[in-house]
Design a protein that fits this description.
The chain is built from four helices and eight strands, in the order βαααββββββαβ. By secondary structure, it is of the alpha+beta class. Helix 1 crosses helix 3 and helix 2 packs antiparallel against helix 3.
C-alpha cells in the first residue's frame, strides 16, 4: 500500500481542462465543418471571382481563429476560476492510499471543513488515463486528478505498476 499527502493547484485543474478539450470529438468535428465551409467559400471566390465570398471567407477565418484562441487559452482558466470560487475545497490537502484494489482519498480539512473519505475501487472507474505528468481517474460523474510530481520517489514505481495493470488503463502521450 502506498500512502502520501498531496494538494492540487490551480494549474493542475487548467491542465485537466485542456486535456478534456483534446479528447472532445464534437469540437474537432465542428472545426472540420468550419474549414469545409471556408474552403468552399475560397473556392467560390477564386473560381467565380466573387469578391463578396472573399470578404465572407476572411470573416469566417478570423472568427474561427478567434474562437479557437479563446477556447484554448482563456476558457479553461475562466472555468477553473469559477469552479474554485464556488468551492475552495478543491485546493485542500488530501491523503491518498493506493493499493491493488482501490484508491482511497481523504481530505485533510481546515477548521471550517468536514472530513471526507472517498474510496474508489478500480472496478467502478470507467477509465484511467496516464499522461506525461498526470494520472486521471474517471469515476462515473467525477474525475480524480493525481499529479505524478506529488508521488514520493520511493513509491512511484509501486503506484505506477498498480495503476497500469488495470483493465481500464490508457496511456495518452
Amino acid at each position: 500500500m502506498a500512502e502520501f499527502v498531496y494538494s492540487l493547484t490551480y494549474d493542475d485543474y487548467v491542465v485537466f481542462e485542456k486535456f478534456k478539450m483534446k479528447r472532445n470529438k464534437t469540437s474537432f468535428f465542428s472545426y472540420l465543418m468550419c474549414l469545409f465551409f471556408i474552403a468552399t467559400g475560397v473556392y467560390d471566390a477564386v473560381v467565380y471571382k466573387n469578391s463578396d465570398m472573399i470578404i465572407i471567407s476572411a470573416l469566417i477565418i478570423f472568427s474561427v481563429c478567434a474562437a479557437t484562441l479563446y477556447s484554448v487559452k482563456f476558457a479553461p482558466k475562466r472555468r477553473i476560476r469559477k469552479l474554485l470560487s464556488l468551492d475552495s475545497a478543491y485546493l485542500c490537502r488530501n491523503r491518498a492510499l493506493i493499493d491493488d484494489k482501490a484508491i482511497e482519498i481523504r481530505n485533510i480539512p481546515d477548521k471550517k471543513q468536514a472530513g471526507i473519505v472517498m474510496v474508489y475501487p478500480y472496478s467502478v472507474m470507467s477509465a484511467i488515463y496516464e499522461t506525461q505528468d498526470y494520472f486521471y481517474f474517471f469515476i462515473v460523474t467525477e474525475v480524480k486528478i493525481l499529479p505524478k510530481r506529488v508521488i514520493p520517489a520511493e513509491l512511484f514505481d509501486y503506484v505506477e505498476k498498480i495503476i497500469r495493470k488495470n483493465r481500464n488503463y490508457l496511456f495518452i502521450a
